[in-house]
Amino acid sequence: MRLSTVILPVRPWRSGGRDEWLRAEQLGFHTAYTYDHLSWRTFRDGPWYGAVPTLTAAAAATERLRLGTLVTSPNFRHPVTLAKDLISLDDVSDGRVTLGIGAGGTGFDATALGQEAWTPRQRADRFAEFVPLLDRLLTEGAVTHEGAFYSAVEARNIPGCVQRPRLPFAIAATGPRGLKLAARYGQAWVTTGDPKLFETGTPEQSLEAIGGQIDKLAKACADTGRNVAELDKILLTGFTPDRGRPLESLDAFVDFAGKHIELGFTEIVVHAPIPDSDFAADQAVFERIATEAPAQLGG
Asked: pLDDT tens, 211-255?
């Protein structure tokens, strides 16, 4: 079992930002992720820094910690330019990058470039073209593609990723088309649970729903001739009916994580505390979870 964290890009690098990434490495987290948004929910009117520059700085400051996005989406990214950034980031980090990637949503990113927010079907259509093209861009030296949504004309990506054949994809998906992409292109699968249960559901209902998601992932893998055991399964916490309760104590977290590990999860991700926000938590408890929970959970 791997324990990882999310560090939201809200602190200036010279005023606490750098220290937070260094501390994540010192605490022994497997990976430190950040959100890849232009702004996000209640943080919209405060500081919010770009994911790729933040991860590049973190790569230069750390030595062992894996780094990644949870998640990048087509909302404001293009595969050609994203591939170039990822190859550069993989080089700076010496092969420590994981790309968390999803279809995107209807938040601020969806309209920041002046477009109308896409419908779920439109997001799925773009995602279905985005992922295979990005896969090619990260594994082939030159790519030409003319699709319904994205084009590339002899796009050069030499020398490619440090990680071969490319850096790993952790694909966030719960619908059939997204799960098919995860089964075919993913090295990991990501879920936050069932959003319909967040407000009124129970932890027990959430576990059942997530178990159903894993069953659907297994079917998608079987349909593509792949063993679902080949994929890491990542739970991004904070969006199930449990909300912040797992971070109230070490015992509470071990109980929460243990139930999800029984479902088949190989990585649990917790948010680094941010005071006066939805992710407020006791820093001492957070650090105790980081240093003591993995051993109790068999990590």
From this structure: 999 999 999 999 999 999 999 999 999 999 999 999 999 999 999
Burial class, 79, CB count within 10 angstroms (exposed 0-12 / middle 13-18 / buried 19+): buried
How far is 123 from 33, CA to CA, in rounded Å?
23
- Which SS3 state, helix, strand or coil, does residue 34 take? strand
Contacts of 208 (CB under 8 A, 6+ apart): none
Q: What is the DSSP string of 200-269?
A: T--HHHHHHHHHHHHHHHHHHHHHTT--GGGSEEEEE-SSSTTTTGGGS-HHHHHHHHHHHHHHT-SEEE
| Digit-coded pLDDT (tens) for 81-121 | 999 999 999 999 999 999 999 999 998 999 999 999 999 99
Q: How far, CA to CA in Å, does 132 sit from each of 90, 178, 220, 255? A: 19, 12, 16, 38
pTM summary value: 0.97
